[in-house]
Design goal:
Radius of gyration: 18 Å
Shape: globular
Order of helices and strands: EEEEEEEEEEEEEEEE
Strand content: 15-25%
């Protein structure tokens, strides 16, 4: 596969969190069913609110120091299907939504600039993600084990895909990498067994070891000699196509 520039319209916005159970909000792919309906059964959880009718958790804070721990005695994380983050939030903390297994939609504003370590790891019901254009950092394992995730478009401004960021996203079929990407780190897309298409920008200079290991549906790309490729970066991939 040669380097080429293509554009896919995947959408835009996603994110935020709950550290050790803390809530946040982001941007939603399309239309969230009944998202305009406000339930009378709204539960206050510190600075956050949970609407039982729409199964939506709303994070209303801005500064991370103001966030109160998510009270699982009031609402189980298994009940939450939609997380909505207020405009002004800039960071999705580490482990924010980790293992929110029924989370389907995340609405994040353009103010979000960073997604923390493991923030959405294990969100097995999350199918599509729209990342905000102002995002500049995605930390390691941020979307690891999101086994329902199908498409991802990385916004321009991201320079590196961190360690195991999308590992074991077994339903991921396509990735669009922006012109800003320089490095793809260890195991970034390891075990993405359905991955078939990667849009490679000319900006890529290094692909770390095991980055695409066991991506059994992905043809090994034809890369310029200047790109440093680590050991086993494409082990288990399809043969290179002419």
């Amino acid at each position: 596969m040669n380097f080429e520039k293509k554009k896919m319209g995947l959408a835009a916005k996603i994110s935020v969190a709950m550290v050790l159970g803390i809530g946040f909000i982001g941007a939603l792919p399309s239309v969230m069913p009944n998202s305009s309906v406000v339930s009378a059964e709204e539960i206050e959880i510190g600075v956050n609110y949970y609407d039982e009718q729409t199964k939506t958790l709303t994070f209303t804070g801005i500064e991370i120091d103001d966030i109160e721990l998510f009270d699982s005695r009031k609402v189980s994380t298994d009940q939450i299907e939609h997380v909505e983050i207020s405009d002004g939030v800039t960071l999705i903390p580490y482990w924010a939504f980790q293992n929110f297994t029924n989370l389907k939609y995340v609405t994040i504003p353009s103010s979000v600039e960073s997604i923390g370590w493991g923030a959405f790891g294990g969100c097995t019901s999350l199918e599509n993600i729209v990342l905000p254009e102002n995002l500049t950092k995605i930390e390691r394992e941020a979307f690891a084990d999101c086994t329902s995730l199908q498409h991802i478009e990385i916004p321009n401004g991201i320079k590196s895909i961190g360690i195991r960021t999308f590992s074991n996203c077994s339903n991921l079929t396509a990735i669009i990498l922006p012109d800003s990407i320089k490095s793809i780190e260890y195991g970034a897309f390891k075990d993405c067994t359905s991955l078939k298409y990667v849009i490679w920008p000319e900006s890529v200079t290094s692909i770390d070891m095991c980055a695409f290991e066991n991506c059994i549906a992905l043809p090994k790309p034809s890369l310029p000699k200047r790109v440093v490729v680590g050991q086993n970066a494409f082990r288990g991939c399809q043969p290179e196509q002419n």
